[in-house]
Amino acid sequence: MSYDLVVIGTGPGGYVCAIRAAQLGLKVAVVEKRRTHGGTCLNVGCIPSKALLHASEMFDEVSHTFPGLGIITAKPKLDLKQMMVHKQETVDANVNGVAFLLKKNKIEAFHGTASIPAAGKVVVTAEDGKTQELETKNIVIATGSESAALPGVTTDEKTVVTSTGALELSSVPKELLVVGAGVIGLEIGSVWARLGAKVTVVEFLDRILPGMDDEIAKQFQRLLQKQGFTFHLGSKVTKVETGKKGGATVTVEPAAGGEARTLNADIVLVAIGRRPNTDGLGLDKAGVVTERGRVVIDDHFQTNVPGIYAIGDVVRGPMLAHKAEDEGVAVAEILAGKHGHVNYDAIPSIVYTGPEVAAIGKTEEELKAAGVAYKVGKFPFTANGRARAIKHTDGFVKFLADAATDRVLGCHIIGPHAGDLIAEVTVLMEFGGSAEDLARTCHAHPTLAEAVKEAALAVDKRQIHM
To answer: What pTM did the predictor assign?
Structure first.
């Protein structure tokens, strides 16, 4: 069996890469270790978590937003089993959709684990142990990532869970302890907090959302605390002991050293980050260089071994599904003789909590560290008519623009539908636009997007509604 391209992994990066390559006339095959396509994102990550985030938000709205809108209902009752059915139906629809797209584009799919004995060869080992070798001109490694383990702590996906187990709980925990104040921990913590859990977050750093703009992170922490979250920042978990009848005792110490204390929880979620998923690929045997677990690539996504490429979570850059998708398209186009490219300065990131947090480009802290002169424009949702109408006025929009050229260097939003609002800024930055370009663009009224325009106006101190 000979191909122009074999893609290992059918997560967002892998299946998009395969489809684009097939569109460009290449003969393509994919190898997937799961029985369903879509990778971590569609099966146990992005998609199921967003299904539960939406469902839990609706549950919370009935109690906290409906009365102010003049809608009086009985106290809502949680049917967690049905909520999980909704989650699974969402997953099934998405993974089946990917299978359809692969078939539509005449991409041959092999299920099993893949290894690379050498350039041009991929060995697929099925569940029953049978192997077959695929010959290919090019290989793209798109195997994604897995939850990073906390040293000395064993996850059983029952009491001590990763994000996978945390999306499969059969009942709402009374006490949920989250290790790590990053995106995954805060999103999943939000799901269970809305459904009645008391959520405690332990974070090694002295802030939440590492890498996000500090001003945004501080306001977000205050809003989460209003929702019932408790934070232990600058702290580390050194031991987790599970009881015979369930539950856990967690030992926490100051990150800088000091007296230990213990916290009790029904469920402990370990969400300290993710690690590249390259085990079993045989990269050493194939001669592929890695650095700190990530596959080393050049500007064209090629490893040190000609004909072997890598994209997504296994390579440098943020571990984001849409970043992997863009890299998949780029490498497919390069293999087809075109000029694939990814602009890493215009990749948005989103936290799908309530309110949402979205960011693109540089933070204030990064600009200060680089010595870049910049201007700031901010506008609060409290001054936006649509935000008032839907009773979601927490947060603000923040623009960072070059002091000399007015080119937008970054934008940070905390507020309703921030993940959708960041899209127009992404387009703006992709075309090298200025704050004035956006400020002079007509925005429909009344919309949340007007807050984005007003923040762009505020860069030049000429916002209208504040």
So the answer is: 0.97
